[in-house]
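Local shape tokens

___
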Amino acid sequence: MKAARKYIAFDIGASNGRCVIGSFDGRRLSLDVLSRFENGYVRVHDHLYWNVLGLWNNVKLSLARAASDFRGQIAAVGVDTWGNDFGLLDKHGELIGSPHCYRDPEMQGMMAEAFKIIPREEMFQITGIQFMEINGLYHLMAMVRSGSPMMQIAETFLMMPDLLNYWLTGRKVCEYTNATTPQVLDARTRQWAYPLIGKLGIPEHIFPEIIDPGQVLSPITHLIRDETGLSDTPVIAVATHDTAAAVAAVPASGDNFAYLSSGTWGLLGAEIPGPLLDLKVMQYNFGNEGGVFSTIRLLRNIANMWLVQECERIWALEGDKYTWDQLSSMAEQARPFTGFVDPDDPAFLLPDHMPSEIQRVCADTGQSAPQTRGEIIRACLESLAMKYRYNFEKLVDLLGKVPEVFHIVGGASRNRLLNQFTANAIKQPVIAGPSEATALGNVIMQMIAVGDLADLAEARQLIRDSFPTETFTPQDTATWDEQYAVFLSKTGLPPIPVRR
């Protein structure tokens, strides 16, 4: 029997990274995690940095293991990461310093400073991107304003996956889907927004060629071959933004669907053929991020499982380590609707103690506030489901139609309690899975690039054939409708016109 072809997918998020092996036997696709490694920002004085050299070392170690385990079977390599963050290279191609984390306090206030130079409406008309202070544009501005010597010697700007691809191949290019995230790309031309960049004082010469997702970059360099034992393997510029990869892997059979890519961040939106740049999109703070095969991801960021992750981290520091299943069980047994918060409240961006901050915000808005740890987690999950509904209603208003299907993909799609809460809140069936959507999107883009799949439709059919999903039907919608009104009242969010 002929051995299955293997695809190496590096899926690196803000909290961890993985090397995943996709195996295709000609009929079914399977995934196996070859290695896992930690990621996270490192605080030095007042700044937050990524340990990108540690990530790079783990990439090489994983390649060496894959070369040893699957000699002669590896068809390609692809890398996806989170968005917004970047590295700068000097004229010799050397990395200048450690890349900053998008949560770095340095960016605070920069968005307001940018609007003094370029009005919000004009900036949105150019970029079409959701306004968030974590966007890379404001980090670049902060570096310019502070007189950072890095900006004075920088020759090349590379997003995080592009930096890793450069070290793998020697090519300095930016892949389109991730290049849209820092708000420096023209939504119509799909090229760098040089007039905007210039007005903000950012050096224009640092931005390299933009390439479409699915292009073959080149084989790995001879240095990587020698160091890892890997053969002359092509590196594919997959959908290098993790959400773009996840959306590519949504197991939809038509084009009228909504999705939630659910992890540390939640990205709720729809796949559309071109950017929507009208005033309402900006008012709703949705963005037009790049998708695969000339599509646009019309979406909204939600702070999502970050709240739960931070609670888990704080309790572990206090001596109580919980698994995700334990937290979910505690929440399921807790009292419902003890308090609501807006997950996107700036108070939750980088708090010292997330559980206490959730309780404080609830108390400050006249609620009884969750008391037990189970109640705190349940309040997070209920608040998230309500925020999904809020943004789903915005999406329906923007599209002028109700999507036929709501898909949840990504790691948090395994949280059955949150999936049920979501179905209850949006009053629509929810299809959950696959949980490994980002790695799957990475793999299928490799498969299309090397000719093992014809197109995205065939890739999504393969995913439907290979990975199970679970459907959650709405329950007790009358109660959830009543509580949604409470959620809007306590968070101060204005109601959205409903078209159902």
Remarks:
- Residues 165 and 431 are 34 Å apart (CA to CA).
- The radius of gyration is 22 Å.
